[in-house]
Design brief:
Radius of gyration: 22 Å
Helix content: 25-40%
Number of domains: 3
Shape: globular
Number of strands: 15
């Protein structure tokens, strides 16, 4: 398994390509037994490399093209795109949607660059790859007045980031399912053609400065976010975007809290998605199988109430309540991001995670409570300290 130093090196190497990193949110950094490799699996240029034979994870900086697909794949918010940020991308897409009378159009860079002299850039947004688009963006556009969302893609077979389309197709399917369950008529679609509404009418019928802004969104020559967004990111993520943290600093930030767990943080993109869904209204009371939410199922008869799942859960979707002789695991599907750390660290393998979730539970903030009072034999069994005490026997403070 990779060490913390290996994982931190991987994550921080991405910063040069416009990716903001918060290593303490990475499942692998938090626990080396975590099996999450979603960023590497989604990487469109093989920049993120896992070598099981040498038990290492490393980055090939020269391979990274800054497409942002890894940030869409990362479930915990450890990787965040910065050029542009999710917020800046939404604001640009919303403005373009309004200019295009309700149709939101997002084009991959090759497609946009090939047609830039034929389309009105005020009515669409350019992204390096459609793998950069995530469900929260599509649902947010629907919640703010879009009547349809079109993702325009070039011929992926001839594109070096070709399998970024795989992520885009997954995102579109998930977003459309959520929109359907929330009663929205808006749908997203991937297409090879620009809608006729974005066609340039005459030579000067567009704002050249605006077009230049969108054209440079993915360029190293321009920081599309700006100083204000940098400051907002630093506040939101709790890390200075231009500062590389050493493994020692990472460990310091990963100290155990007063509740006996590592720090929790719900990704900003998850909160934006929940806010957008809330704006759409109440969903149908149906099961949805997506990559977005998860439902924990625990065999209470086999669980020893060690609480390791709650200790290492990155988002706090799993928490442990302990009051003397009473112990319970509480799970909130709305905060679960399917990193599957809970499954990976479960000492008794009595916990499984289902990708099928009743969306009404997500909308209403419902929780699942597992009473483990008969399993919790020792005080402090929910903490790392408690596990250590049971492992060596006795009180380690003696």
């Amino acid at each position: 398994m990779p060490s913390i130093a290996d994982s931190v090196e991987l994550l921080q190497s991405l910063e040069n390509t416009g990716i903001v990193v918060e290593p303490t949110r990475c499942a692998v950094v938090r626990n080396r037994n975590a099996g999450c490799r979603k960023c590497a699996d989604a990487c469109t240029s093989q920049a993120i490399v896992i070598e099981p034979a040498s038990n290492t994870i490393r980055i090939e900086p020269g391979n990274c093209v800054g497409c942002g697909t890894c940030t869409t794949a990362c479930p915990t918010g450890a990787l965040e795109a910065r050029k542009p940020t999710d917020v800046a991308l939404f604001e640009a897409a919303q403005a373009a949607c309004a200019a295009n009378e309700g149709t939101a159009v997002i084009a991959c860079a090759p497609m946009y660059d090939a047609a830039k002299d034929l389309v009105d850039s005020a009515k669409l947004v350019r992204v390096p790859c459609l793998g950069r688009v995530e469900e929260g963006l599509i649902v947010s556009l629907a919640a703010h007045g879009a009547t349809r969302v079109r993702l325009v893609c070039a011929d992926c077979a001839s594109c070096s980031e070709s399998h970024g389309i795989d992520m885009a197709e997954t995102v579109v399917a998930n977003a459309n399912l959520l929109l359907e369950l929330w009663g929205s008529d808006v749908r997203a679609k991937i297409t090879r053609k620009f809608p006729s509404s974005v066609r340039k009418v005459r030579k000067d019928a567009y704002d050249k400065n605006r077009r230049a802004f969108f054209h440079d969104l993915g360029s190293e020559a321009r920081d599309a976010v700006g100083t204000a967004t940098d400051m907002a990111l630093e506040k939101e993520l709790g890390v200075e975007s231009k500062t590389r943290l050493s493994p020692t600093q990472i460990l310091a930030k990963l100290r155990v809290t007063d509740h006996g767990t590592l720090p929790h943080a719900v990704p900003a993109k998850r909160q934006r998605l929940l806010d957008a869904l809330a704006a759409l209204g109440e969903p149908a009371d149906e099961l949805a199988d997506t990559r977005l939410f998860g439902q924990v199922v625990i065999d209470a008869s086999a669980c020893t109430a060690c609480g390791m799942c709650a200790v290492f859960c990155p988002t706090g979707a799993l928490t442990n309540e302990v009051d003397r002789d009473f112990s319970a695991l509480v799970h909130y599907p709305g905060a679960c991001v399917q990193c599957r750390t809970c499954e990976d660290v479960c000492l008794k393998k009595c916990l499984t995670l289902s990708s099928e979730v009743f969306v009404r539970d997500v909308a209403d903030g419902r929780i699942e409570r597992y009473d483990l009072s008969s399993n919790a034999k020792n005080a402090g069994t929910h903490t790392i300290l408690g596990v250590a005490q049971r492992t060596i026997g006795g009180n380690i403070h003696d």
